[in-house]
Amino acid sequence: MAAHTQPGGHGTASFDPPRRLLTALGQVPGEPARRWLEDLPAIVERQLATWELSAPRVVNPGGRGSMVVLVTQADGTPAALKFPAPGPDAAPEAEALRRWDGWGAVRLLRHDPPTGALLLERLHESVSLRSLPEAKALLEAAGTVRRLWVEPPAGHGFRSVAEVTAEAVPVLRSPDAGPRAREARPLLDEALELRAALTADAPEELLLHGDFQQGKVLSGERAPWLAVGPAPLVGERAYDLARLVLDRFEDVAAGSGPAAVLRRRVTRLADSLEVDRERLRGWALYRAAELGLRRLAAGERARGELLLEFAGWL
Fold first, then answer.
1. What is the distance between the alpha carbons of residues 306 and 23, in angstroms, rounded to a whole number?
2. Same domain, 183 and 296
3. 41-89: per-residue pLDDT in tens?
4. Entry's Pfam families (predicted)?
5. Pick from 34, 38, 80, 289: CA 20 to 30 A from residue 65's CA?
């Protein structure tokens, strides 16, 4: 991947999408994703010129849903230029970052709605909470996510947990999800029942990160740890915490007594953040089942089966 410019230069680099992004979007049907990938190098060049940025390099390997370029602003301040892939979470990300205004999350410096480009404060992209021991990482994660749970702004455009999870119902009900999913049918049915019950009596409607996990909390200069990469929506805190329960699931499975470890995680996180234990357990089971099926559909058999096993432990 080529990505080199001289300071102050804007038109001498070639910005190729990271391989992980190409692989992830290659599984997305339809013309928009393919066309966006083809146009992305030119989009990056134009945005660099428009905002007077120089770009030493592209973050590699990059994410599954965006490309990030490390840049320097005209006044010499480092920043990160992010281009989210077209989709339902592209515009809400900017809205959520504006609402948080740097409180617990990376600060949004500029936003270009036509391209979706986000100019963000520079964090230490190679240092996340996953670099810490498990107990310390969970403690720091809980302190960070607590700051994000605020009232959504009036007239917001965020989707709700009920709406987002409703889109996954056909996936969980599909009879063509493969033999492992068919074996797990009672578990998937339980996940569907839990989802229906939990969305029917949600106790609160707060702004959530939506995909909160240790790898999405990076070290910063302004604050020790700041969240990045939200898929924002509104709903109850237990939904956000459920993804954290599943964090480092492969490490947990490789250790002793994984089911007991998961139960302790649920208890510790629920009690420390004043979240109902049973609601957290229910959402963790649902999210493990949903993620497991999605991993199976993406050809990640080992991870998918392990997530379904996690759902069973919960």
1. 22
2. yes
3. 899 999 999 999 998 666 554 567 888 999 999 999 999 999 988 776 6
4. APH_6_hur
5. 289
